[in-house]
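Troubleshooting: if your tokenizer reports a length mismatch, compare your output against this known-good record of 127 residues.
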Amino acid sequence: QVQLVESGGGLVQAGGSLRLSCAASGGTRDSYTMGWFRQAPGKQRDFVAAISRNGIISDYADSVKGRFTISRDNAKNTGYLQMNTLKPEDTAVYYCAARSRSYYSGNRYASYDYDFWGQGTQVTVSS
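Known-good structure output:
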């Protein structure tokens, strides 16, 4: 069982930056693929980014490519989402997720394919 706790959300002006963290416990440090998803009010939970167990491979939603960077530090059992050039449409609750399947197994873009979830952290971008 893996427990995930996000932090780092907040209110920022458009064009600003935030760094989200996801602290993991209860699992082997490099035994899972990690992902970030977000959910705006009244909308479905959407894929943002994913990173492989060793941190070498990553993918991004088109809407955040070039602005967001996913990373992980397995020594600290922590994942990160660096968000730059934020836009009002990035406003959402951001969730960290983990799954035990290897990176190319299943569907890493789908929320249903993740086994463990954090409680979420609010990101609000003002115009």
